[in-house]
Task: inverse folding
């Protein structure tokens, strides 16, 4: 088993790692780089808990190979706040109690941030369809959708 | 004497009755008397029961007091999610 | 601003009832929070479990020698590594954790390996040779009850019938509840409706798969980190299964990524401990989603006959239900709770319920939010709806006419104290949702639901810090924001700001036994313990102030966060704040703490009414949920946002159960949809906003009036949605899930006059 050397950028930091050819980006993040904020809920791309940004595109990291990160930029939940300043979405999720157990939350935040980067004035329906790839079993999505809409409104008026 | 009402499927084990009168001033005495008088109940009771005293549910409370005029129901042990 | 919902408040609190940010919030939005699979240890091995591909098979032999010879494999365990435990309540769990003579369902664990890496562990599994003798299987509840059905356990004799049966069957137990004379009651009825209903097994669907990290030393001392609803339960079960002493095994609960009842037992934890003990190294074991579906505990599937008689004036004269629940391969389906709760919403003279607990070749069920109740409510509330239509009464008025109220003898026996069912019905009657017009192909459904709630053994410790801050240690994993509620209650009682209290989940070595986070017990029971611990601390704070002032402790009162002289006779001293007293604690007698160890009784029952509008597409059979409102009695909402969250989450799970979710077994007895793609839980685009109305009818058994709220919210939705769909489609639906093919078929049959 010869491992593949990969050079990439994660949350702005130049990063190098070795991985197996069949190892997912999710496993690399969690097991090799100790970035365990990205969660595994299914391993088959159905739940969105492992959502990360890859070169500005929203992906399920369980469906991306670690080796595919070569020369690209990865953003994870650990890079969302700037120092001790939370991203507006993170603040609104807390304010709206948009999480109960919190295991899906990193994936939702990454996905919602991706939405607001392309559409800062989404309708409720647009938010619901954009987030349809992220499963939450606790909240019924009510407070999550409200938090995203409220963040968008606040970011528009900022 | 305290009147205790059993759930329906305990009827046969309690001599065909679902309402029994016993001397008991708390839950432990109640359960002890039941098994003494109706040994067939033991197999049911040792799988766990709840006792409702005047509408309040107790699961593991030997010394919860029972007044002579208390409404007492024996119920299956509750579990939840 | 967050949605504030609607709350009818009676008593004034300073902090209770507000909506501060939860104490674990920042960790959870930044990825810092550590869940079950997020822990590692030096020298850690990775474990995997080999599972039976057969629904029912005798295990003739297991050969692990080739796996053991693979470089990097450090331990292999099979049935030979698990002695049957002395504790009777652990025997079935032992059989479930690792198959013995037979594999009883597709996914049943047969062997496990621990190796230096996941790839090595995977290869080791491939090298284990198991010889099976395939046996006939049964997965349907009605089929399993037939006389010629394949028998799972040759020693199973139905309990609860006399004389004890001489022949083995798959019916583990019969239950019966009720009072009055139903036969006579039915003769008094003008209209009787009798129907049979079926529900599919569903999974709790928590997003976090089970995960643990176990470490056992050669001295017999062990540590376990895992995601669970109750780490004390895990400790005691694992100690019993592995022959350890409870004090030798310390269990730490990780953050938990959902449970809903599914994490109230053990599956992988004893296996990881056994592997670690054998290998002498820490072992991490994480389930895949496929394993979660196949080998943890979904809820029961059911088949239920309901018969209800009513007079033309709307009065119910008699009600009867026969419930058959299969709970997987071992006894213990929640059919008794179905039978007890089925008619709990009604004031009935004549009522009888009979329940059958049935075993089948499916994974052993685990609790799922108000276990057993939603299935029963689906059947009963559907018939109630049909009767209301038949006698031309508004379904809410019909329910109000027959509703259980204070003084009603409940269908399961005891007389109800103050309860909130009528309040939820009255509130729903006047709500704008009830008055809104409906369009074509749309229907509105309502349904009521009941759940018991309970308290149980609870132990908390509250420590006052030298700087006047407070640390509260509780022993119940926080599954939906309970730390925020505990902080609120401690701060309210002590009269300090919310931010000064930090609540942590202590490990099993730190506190006495705490029952599992279940039965909607945490805000009620741990809340009560927290208040009592705070009260105990206040007594000590007053004693210290009394010493400092050199007056009698009885002359000191605690008011608004300060010790004060009780009256003019006590003397004139400047009130001392909690921080003032804490600052000198070390010189006035040592640290100040309050504790509470008790079995918390006095849980109040809980009721809800749900109202839902749906639209059925007559061309495809697809159902769209248009509007949803939950009316529920919370006793007192400590943190209303998380109460709303419980209402909304329960309703959403109910939508999935009603419309999509089901365990689908093939002819071969294997689960065909063990993944989130084919077992489809509701996604954001499937749901509307879920409106909530929190009623507050205080529970006299709790100092702040709290009732548990977590479970009741999943009881009414199956029926409410079925009633709405039946109204919209013009056909009564009696089988869940109401998936598009099933609805379309019913519409076509009606159209064709079948």
Result:
């Amino acid at each position: 088993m010869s491992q593949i050397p990969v050079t990439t950028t994660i949350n702005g930091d130049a990063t190098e790692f070795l991985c197996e050819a069949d190892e997912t980006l999710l496993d690399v993040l969690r097991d090799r780089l100790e970035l365990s904020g990205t969660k595994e809920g299914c391993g088959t791309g159905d739940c969105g808990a492992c959502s990360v940004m890859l070169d500005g595109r929203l992906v399920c990291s369980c469906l991306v190979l670690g080796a595919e990160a070569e020369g690209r930029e990865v953003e994870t939940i650990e890079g969302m706040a700037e120092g001790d300043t939370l991203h507006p979405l993170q603040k609104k999720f807390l304010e709206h109690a948009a999480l109960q157990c919190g295991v899906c939350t990193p994936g939702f935040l990454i996905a919602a941030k991706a939405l607001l980067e392309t559409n800062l004035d989404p309708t409720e329906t647009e938010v619901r369809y954009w987030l349809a790839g992220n499963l939450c079993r606790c909240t019924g999505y009510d407070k999550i959708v409200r938090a995203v809409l409220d963040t968008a409104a606040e970011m528009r008026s900022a | 004497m305290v009147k205790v009402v059993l759930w329906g499927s305990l009827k046969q084990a309690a001599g065909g009755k679902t309402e029994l009168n016993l001397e008991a001033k708390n839950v432990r005495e109640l359960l002890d008397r039941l098994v003494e008088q109706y040994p067939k109940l033991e197999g049911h009771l040792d799988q766990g029961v709840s006792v409702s005293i005047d509408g309040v549910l107790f699961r593991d409370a030997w010394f919860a007091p029972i007044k002579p005029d208390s409404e007492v129901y024996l119920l299956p042990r509750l579990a939840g999610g | 601003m967050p949605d504030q919902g609607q709350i009818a408040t009676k008593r004034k609190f300073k902090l209770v009832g507000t909506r501060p940010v939860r104490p674990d919030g920042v960790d959870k939005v930044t990825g810092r929070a550590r869940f079950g699979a997020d822990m590692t240890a030096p020298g850690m091995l990775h474990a995997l479990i080999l599972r039976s591909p057969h629904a029912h098979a005798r295990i003739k032999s297991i050969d692990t020698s080739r796996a053991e010879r693979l470089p990097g494999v450090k331990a292999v365990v099979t049935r030979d590594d698990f002695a049957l435990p002395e504790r009777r309540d652990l025997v079935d769990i032992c059989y479930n954790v690792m198959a013995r003579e037979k594999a009883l369902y597709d996914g049943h664990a047969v062997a496990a390996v621990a190796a230096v890496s996941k790839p090595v562990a995977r290869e080791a599994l491939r090298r284990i040779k198991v010889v099976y003798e395939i046996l006939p299987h049964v997965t349907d509840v009605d089929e399993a009850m037939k006389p010629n059905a394949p028998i799972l356990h040759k020693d199973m004799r139905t309990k609860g019938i006399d004389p004890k049966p001489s022949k083995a069957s798959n019916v583990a137990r019969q239950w019966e509840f009720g009072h009055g004379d139903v036969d006579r009651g039915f003769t008094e009825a003008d209209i009787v409706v009798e129907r049979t209903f079926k529900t599919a097994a569903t999974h709790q669907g928590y997003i976090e798969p089970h995960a643990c990290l176990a470490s056992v030393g050669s001295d017999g001392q062990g540590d376990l980190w895992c995601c669970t609803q109750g780490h004390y339960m895990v400790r005691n079960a694992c100690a019993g299964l592995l022959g350890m002493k409870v004090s030798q095994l310390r269990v730490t609960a990780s953050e938990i990524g959902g449970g809903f009842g599914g994490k109230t037992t053990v599956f992988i934890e004893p296996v990881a401990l056994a592997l670690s003990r054998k290998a002498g190294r820490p072992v991490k074991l994480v389930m895949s989603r496929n394993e979660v579906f196949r080998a943890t505990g979904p809820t029961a599937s059911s088949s239920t006959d309901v018969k209800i008689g009513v007079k033309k004036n709307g009065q119910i004269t008699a009600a009867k239900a026969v419930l058959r629940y299969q709970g997987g391969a071992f006894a213990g389906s929640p059919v008794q709770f179905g039978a007890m709760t089925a008619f709990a919403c009604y004031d009935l003279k004549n009522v009888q319920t009979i329940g059958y607990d049935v075993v089948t070749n499916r994974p052993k069920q685990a609790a799922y939010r108000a276990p057993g109740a939603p299935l029963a409510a689906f059947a009963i509330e559907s018939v109630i709806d049909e009767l209301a239509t038949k006698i031309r009464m508004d379904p809410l008025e019909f329910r109000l006419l027959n509703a259980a109220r204070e003084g009603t003898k409940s269908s399961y026996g005891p007389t109800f104290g103050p309860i909130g069912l009528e309040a939820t019905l009255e509130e729903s009657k006047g709500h704008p949702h009830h008055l809104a017009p409906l369009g074509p192909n749309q229907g509105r459904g309502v349904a009521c639901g009941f759940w018991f709630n309970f308290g149980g053994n609870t132990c908390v410790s509250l420590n006052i810090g030298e700087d006047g801050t407070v640390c509260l240690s509780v022993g119940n994993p926080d599954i939906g924001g309970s730390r925020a509620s505990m902080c609120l209650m401690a701060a309210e009682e002590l009269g300090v700001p919310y931010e000064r209290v930090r609540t942590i989940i202590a490990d099993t070595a730190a506190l006495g036994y705490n029952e599992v986070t279940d039965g909607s017990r945490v805000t009620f029971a741990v809340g009560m313990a927290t208040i009592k611990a705070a009260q105990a601390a206040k007594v000590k704070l007053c004693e210290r102030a009394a010493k400092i002032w050199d007056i009698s402790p009885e002359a000191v009162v605690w008011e608004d966060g300060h010790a004060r002289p009780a009256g003019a006779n006590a003397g004139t001293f400047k009130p001392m704040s909690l921080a003032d007293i804490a600052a000198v604690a070390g010189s006035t007698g040592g640290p100040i703490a309050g504790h509470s160890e008790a079995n918390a009784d006095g849980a109040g029952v809980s009721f809800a009414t749900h109202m839902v509008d749906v639209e059925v597409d007559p061309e495809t059979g697809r159902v769209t949920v248009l509007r949803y409102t939950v009316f529920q009695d919370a006793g007192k909402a400590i943190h209303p946002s998380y109460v709303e969250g419980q209402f909304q989450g329960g309703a959403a799970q109910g939508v999935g159960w009603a419309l999509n979710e089901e365990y689908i077994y093939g002819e071969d007895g294997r689960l065909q949809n063990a993944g989130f793609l084919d077992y489809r839980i509701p996604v954001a685009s499937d749901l509307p906003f879920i409106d909530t109305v929190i009623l507050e009818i205080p529970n006299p058994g709790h100092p702040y009036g709290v009732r548990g709220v977590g479970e009741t919210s999943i009881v009414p939705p199956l029926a409410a949605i079925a009633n709405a769909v039946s109204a919209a489609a013009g056909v009564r639906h009696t089988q869940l899930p109401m998936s598009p093919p099933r609805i379309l078929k019913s519409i076509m049959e009606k159209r064709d006059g079948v």
Chain A touches chain C through 59 residues (CB under 8 Å). The longest strand of chain A covers residues 4-10. DSSP finds five helices and five strands in chain A.
